[in-house]
Structure prediction request, 284 residues.
Amino acid sequence: MEKKIDRGKRFVQEQAQLFRCPLCHSAMAGSTGGLTCENQHRFDVSKKGTLFFLSHQVKTDYDREMFAARRRMIQSGMYRPLLERLAEAVPENGTLLDVGCGEGSFLDLLLAQVSSQAAIGFDISKEGVYMATEQPQPAFWCVADLTNLPFAQERFDTVLNIFSPSNYREFARILKPEGQLLKVVPGPRYLQELRQAFYPDDVNKQQYSNEPVVAKFTESYRTFEKEEITYEFEIPTERRLDLLEMSPLEWGVDPARKAALKKQPLNKITVDLLLLKAENSAFL
Ligand SMILES: [Zn+2]
Prediction:
C-alpha cells in the first residue's frame, strides 16, 4: 500500500493548481517536498500526508476523545439521512472542499457515495486532521485558516460546511462561478434530549436557535434553498456513552449529573438539521 506521505505528495503534485500561498497569495507549484510558491515559500507534506498552512499552532477545545466519540457516532449512522441528501446535491467527478472537516467522517462517508476529481478536507485542529488521515477514502487533508484559505480562485465545484464556522467571502473566491455552497446547521430541536438531560434546570442551555446563522446567510446570498432534515435516531446500545462525549454540550455539565446519565444513557436522540444550499453566482 502507498504510504500516506507519498499519497499526499502525489496529490499536491497533481493538484497544485488548487492551492495558493497563504503567506503571499501567489500561485503554487509541486516540489519534491510538497508545494512551493512563486516567492519560494515552502510547504512540505508531513509523514501523515498532510500540509500545515498556519503560521502558528492553534489550540482548540476539540480533543482526540471528543473527535473519537464523534467519529463513532457519525459512523454508527446517526447522520445517514443527511449524508444521503448531500450525496444527491454533490455533482459527480467535481472538486470538493470540506471546511472544518474535523476527524473527516462526513467527507469520507460522502466520498463512499460520490466520486470526485479531487477532495480536500481542512480544519484548524491538527489533531482532527491527523485523525482524518486514517479515513479510507482518497481525500487530501490539511490544517488551514478559514479566513485565509490556501486555495486558488474559482477552483471548487462544492464547498461543504457542516457544523462549522463560515467565511462567505473566502468561499465565494475559491468556488467556481457555477459552484455551490452546502452549509449544515443544527435546528432548534437538535440533540434536545441531551440538552434536557445535561441541563435539567437551565432553560437557556436547553434551547438553541440558528437564527443568527441563518440571518448572516440571508445577507450573503441573493437566493438560496433551505431544507429541514429532522428525524429520531435510535442509538445502538454500544454507542450510547459516545453521545455524551461527542459535542461541546458536554462542557460545563455537573459531574454528578453526567455520572448518573452514564448509568442510564439515552436510547434515542432527535437529529434536527437545516441544509442551506446557495449557488456561488448568488453571492452578494
Ligand atoms: Zn508565498
